Amino acid sequence: MLHAHLTTLHVVSMILEIFVTQPELTEPLLAGSGITAADLACADTRITRTAELQVCANALKVRSDLGLELGRRMHVSAYGMVGYAALSSATFGDAWRLMLQYPALLGTYFKLELQIEGELAWVSACDYQHSPSLEVFNLEMCLASLKLISDDLLGHPLPLSAAQFRYEEPAYSARYAQSFACPLHFAGARNGFAFPASWLQQPLPLADAVTHREMLERCRKQNSEFNTRQAWLQRVRQLLAAQLTAPPGLEQLAQQMHCSPRTLRRHLQELGTHYQELLDELRFERAKTLLGEQDWPICRIAEHLGFSETASFRHAFQRWSGVPPSRFRA
User: Fold this and answer.
1) Are residues 127 and 17 in the same domain?
2) Domain shared by 139 and 261, yes or no
3) Nearest alpha carbon to residue 150 among 142, 140, 158
4) d(Cα 195, Cα 190) in Å, to the nearest integer?
5) Which residue, of 63, 93, 111, is where some domain finishes?
6) Gap between the Cα atoms of 210 and 177, Å rounded
7) Do 89 and 54 belong together in one domain?
8) Is the sign of the CA dihedral 254, 255, 259, 262 positive or negative?
9) Same domain, yes or no, for 78 and 31?
């Protein structure tokens, strides 16, 4: 699943709003994210997904049901162009087909699916490929928000028939009822919720053909630009990943991308990242794989990832994961 490398302060601002009565938590919530007070004061600030998830991880230490709470605050208007295109769709089913057509514009970490099974329509989220420790949090936020979007589209609550979650029941499961007023099944076969399929034919109260055509064209353009940027970024990642044992410098990488170092820096900045961050991400991904699947000594892994000293790799891994490589392997 592709997702925007660069995002707004929307989620971070909502988290700070949740803890607004506890101003002493602001600094701990932002710790390690690189987000400053000046950034918060600027509405146009863009941050990386890594920074956003760091704030989420910090906040989860304070409130375990944070994903549900954020999802209940993320209305359809929070999704920009694709949200307004969905609102102006002719029917509920049309709106869902539109959103599934442009998953990248939703900025989700999951693959979203809408499946008809008998008389029920199941909305499910799968193929999560980010930090395992944040999977339940991201899933709760995603599904709770999708339910809220459904309510917004219809102008009233969508009646649910069932909800399933693949993980074990959390201690705060009673709070799930605020988003999923239906029978809940934990340790289930999927992550999703179901409603009568007949609702897909329901006309939407804000349907407008002219507005919808305009919004749809903007979605197509935005999606095309996004995919072009992602394809370029993917090429950079592929080149770096193939050379992790002896990573090319910025200038050499620019030559391989057939552009100048200045152009490479500018494109990466526009995507909300930079050379060292990409290199660190790829090294971290490879390190986790080697620690989990290979019986290599730490020194060999460090050499494989282009570190001249094992100690440098240990310090880097501690910075990336919060634990030393030996503890991660254990």
Assistant:
1) no
2) no
3) 158
4) 15
5) 63
6) 37
7) no
8) positive
9) no
Residues 97 and 166 in one domain: yes
Query: Residue 212 falls within a domain, yes or no?
Result: no
Q: For strand 162-165 and strand 47-48, is the pairing parallel, antiparallel, or unpaired?
A: unpaired
Verify that 59 and 71 share a domain, yes or no. Answer: no
pTM score: 0.76
Contact partners, residue 180, CB within 8 Å, separation at least 6: 143, 144, 147, 160, 163, 193
**Per-residue tokens: 87:** 């609102």
Specify whether 180 is located in the same domain as 73. yes
> How many domains does the structure of the chain reveal?
3
Of the chain, the end-to-end C-alpha distance in Å amounts to 29
pLDDT in tens, the chain (330 residues): 334 455 678 889 999 999 999 999 999 999 888 788 778 887 667 777 778 888 999 999 999 999 999 999 999 998 989 999 999 999 999 999 999 998 888 888 899 999 999 999 999 999 987 778 899 999 999 999 999 999 999 999 999 999 999 999 999 999 999 999 999 999 999 999 999 999 999 999 999 999 999 999 999 998 888 778 778 888 999 999 999 999 999 999 999 999 999 999 988 887 778 899 889 989 988 998 899 877 899 999 999 999 999 999 999 998 887 788 988 887
